[in-house]
Design brief:
Layout: E1 2-3, E2 10-11, E3 15-19, E4 22-26, H1 29-36, E5 52-54, E6 57-59, H2 62-67
Antiparallel strand pairs: 1-2, 3-4, 5-6
Bound molecules: zinc ion (ZN) (2 copies).
Length: 77
Amino acid sequence: MARCDQCGNNYDKSFQVISAGETYTFDSFECAIQKLAPTCPHCGVRVVGHGVEQDDIIYCCAHCAEQEGATALRDRA
Ligand SMILES: [Zn+2]
Ligand SMILES: [Zn+2]
């Protein structure tokens, strides 16, 4: 049994995530995303996939990065 760091639920199937040397406990991926996933500075969505990164800022896609002035990035799709 371990308590979720995000919502406080005490759940026997909780799991741990290590991020930047910190260990977090969650009862669901939704809670993990809520606490750990970065937010795109342009459109505000949670970056749950790989996203794109420039100058330590993570965007959801190259379009958003470009709108914020990060012109070196390209989606490969
Ligand atoms: Zn939770
Ligand atoms: Zn975005």
